[in-house]
Amino acid sequence: MKADLHSHLLPNLDDGAKSLQDSVSLISELAELGFTKLITTPHVMSDYFKNTPEKILPALDIVREELSRLNMPMQIEAAAEYYMDEVFVSKLETETLLTLPGNYLLFELSFVNYPSNLYDVIDQILQKGYRPVLAHPERYPYFAGEMENYSQLKDAGCYLQINTISLTGYYGKASQTIAEKLIDHTMVSFIGSDMHHQRHSAALKQSLKLPYVQKLLTDYQLLNPLLVV
């Protein structure tokens, strides 16, 4: 796998790392698990986390400088996890967004309300030349675990990224079952840690022992290795 494409490791930008010390600690634990490249993705949410490249990239530089000072050879970059709302749609039209390597654009949805304009926005993302990647589809209850709903997303040109720790039951049995079904139906393109804090780190370590994770890492065509450039 080598590359993790979804985490919240930059200090004091969102509900992830709260300090530079937190950042270094979480990055160190990911390094121990064998990751060589991290693409951290701070939340961009108009109501809560009003992050911009002008906030994210300087925070990335601070973390890189600290890793260099500590002689920690971890490659770290920054993209963003965009919350799909009206502000995001506006940003698509007027701004250059922070993407993963290969122009993959990570976005998330409300955990409560199904966005009626979902497919219009996916089409807009594609028209702007981005490759849409939906974060943790297993966690949206309104998809109800019906594989047809996820197939429609894939058919629309949207890649699916599940959280590895979903397979431990961290977010509940329903999310675990859906994540397993997505793997069984070969619908997963990326896996990510979605690392925010030490509890996520402990769950990630636990997940590596699971048969479904072993299946992903051996018999599966994940796209994570393509991010290591």
From TrEMBL:
The keyword RNA-binding belongs to this UniProt entry's keyword annotation: no
Top-tier EC class: hydrolase
EC number annotated for this UniProt entry: 3.1.3.48
Molecular functions (GO terms): manganese ion binding; protein tyrosine phosphatase activity
Keyword Hydrolase among record annotations: yes
Xref: Pfam families: CpsB_CapC
Catalyzed reactions: O-phospho-L-tyrosyl-[protein] + H2O = L-tyrosyl-[protein] + phosphate
InterPro entries linked to this entry: Caps_polysacc_synth_CpsB/CapC (IPR016667), Pol/histidinol_Pase-like (IPR016195)
Transmembrane segments: none
Keywords in alphabetical order: Hydrolase
PANTHER family the UniProt entry points to: TYROSINE-PROTEIN PHOSPHATASE YWQE
Family to which this protein belongs: Belongs to the metallo-dependent hydrolases superfamily. CpsB/CapC family.
Protein name, entry field: protein-tyrosine-phosphatase
Record organism: Hufsiella arboris
